[in-house]
Amino acid sequence: MIYRRSLSALLLSVSLLSGAAIAATQGVLIKSETVYAQPSSSAKRIASLSKGSSVNVITKQGGWLQVGVGASKGWVRMLSVRTSGAVASNSGADFAGIAQMATGKRQPGKIVATAGVRGLSEEDLKSAHFSEQGMSELAGYKVSTSAAKNFAKQGRLVKQNIAYLPAPVDNP
Amino acid sequence: MKKTMMSLLLATFSVTSAYAFDFNDLNNVLKQLPGNNTNQTTDNSADTTKSNKIDPATVLLGALKGTSVDDEIQIGRQLSGNLLGASPLVKDAKLQNYVNLVGRWVALQSERPDLPWQFGVIDSTDINAFSAPGGYVFITKGLYNKLNNESELAGVLGHEIAHVVRKHQLKIIQQSQFIGLGADALGREAKGQTALQNLIGSGAEVMSRKLDKNAEFEADRMGLILAARAGYDAYGLPTVLEEIGHVAPGDGSVALLFKTHPAPDVRFAMLSEAVGNRLDYVPAGKELANRFYRLK
């Protein structure tokens, strides 16, 4: 039993590290979408997919996913494809299955405590006492604005001027 | 007496602020406060009852009326210290420094670049993130381990930064039903760090409170944009939501997160609606997977 749990944890971390969760996942369209030849809405339109369609997710590039439908491939908006809970198939389902094994039973709506794992419960939070040492450590890690700007420069991060998004009119 | 006072204040705070990976759009929370206290007050009904007899809550709230930035920081400091009492920082200076650099850069893109922003990774296997007034932001090791690149970290921190920027908890406190009980005079006396510490007392339960879902959706929209403004791939946050969505709902590591936030697939769908084609012509941002600091 203990062995099985460690194995599950191992498998879990392997899938996380490999990034396989996205790369080899089945996805479901949460809205009807156009499929483009390239990851851009100005690219050639090659097909359309209706809401609920299943696709194989091949790779991600920015806001776009390259997907395969049958024998053809194309790009759709990343935000139009849900990969979590795409129970239908392979990697995603396996992933959920592993997490489920690690926890014991899967009982939607019920909280199953995982033995031996140090979590952060409401009780922990309620009974917490102020940690002066913690706050002192935290303050020690604080960085200056100029350090942050320099860090951004090193990563070649370029500031963009983008407005906040309005709230959608209709809830999906 | 003192104890009662603290628990009362604690209860008051609970109603007001809770931040988790999903935050609160305070405006919406506020709209709910007068009539619709269901979740929040149920748990604290005993304390709430007491509040009719005792004044400390009003003292604190009076103190918070017209809260200055200094007051805001003091309140956040107290709550953060309590959180760290429950879950200490991960002992890894490089990690903490890295998260502070990313966080500070993202926060610089917000309307409140000059707050004394401080970021920390706390040593918990839970999957969650928290923030407190004044610029305190925390992410658990459990959530950090789910991330694959810097843009995802930027998105998560952006969500928390948005809660601070919108002053979600403070607004609730200031406009809550406790205000107006005539404690302004007392409030003035109650100002100051020591007084606030005494009033807020111990406990960080506020961190585990469920807030209005629209606050969370707003923080998601803002977090995504803050990361994009910082030059990151805008889609880090929704990618993390997908990752979290892969965790079985029964898994203990997401119990608190799922209790306090809308389901990840709903948050993802809301972002999908909000973004639409609006970012089509924004230059592609960076994911920076190579620079991402991975925990040993």
Descriptive notes:
The complex is a heterodimer of chains A (172) and B (296). Chain A has 172 residues and is of the alpha+beta class. The two termini of chain A are 42 Å apart. In chain A, helix 1 runs antiparallel to helix 3. Chain A contains six helices and seven strands; from the N terminus they run ααβββββββαααα. In chain A, a hairpin with a 2-residue loop joins strand 4 and strand 5 (64-69). Chain A is extended and about 60 Å long. Chain B is mainly alpha-helical and 296 residues long. In chain B, 55% of the residues lie in helices and 5% in strands. Chain B is built from 16 helices and three strands. In chain B, helix 1 packs across helix 10, helix 9 (150-165) crosses helix 14 (236-245) and helix 14 runs antiparallel to helix 16 (264-275). The longest helix of chain B has 18 residues, at 69-86. At the A-B interface, helix 3, helix 4, helix 5 and helix 6 of A face helix 6, helix 7, strand 1, helix 13 and helix 14 of B.
Q: How many beta-strand runs of chain A?
A: 7
SSE succession of chain B? HHHHHHHEEEHHHHHHHHH
Write down the Rg of chain A.
22 Å
Biggest sheet of chain B, in brief? Answer: 3 strands, mixed
Number of helices of chain A: 6
Given as residue ranges, the uncertain stretches of chain A (5+ residues, pLDDT < 50) are 1-23, 87-117
Number of helices of chain B: 16
What's the arrangement of strands in the largest beta sheet of chain A? 6-5-4-1-7
Fraction of residues of chain B in helices?
55-70%
What's the average pLDDT of chain B?
75
Q: Based on helices, strands and strand pairing, what is the structural class of chain B?
A: mainly alpha
Fraction of helical residues of chain A: 25-40%
Beta percentage of chain A is 15-25%
Span between termini of chain B: 47 Å
Which protein chains make the most extensive interface, counting residues with beta carbons within 8 Å of the other chain's beta carbons? A-B, 86 and 103 residues
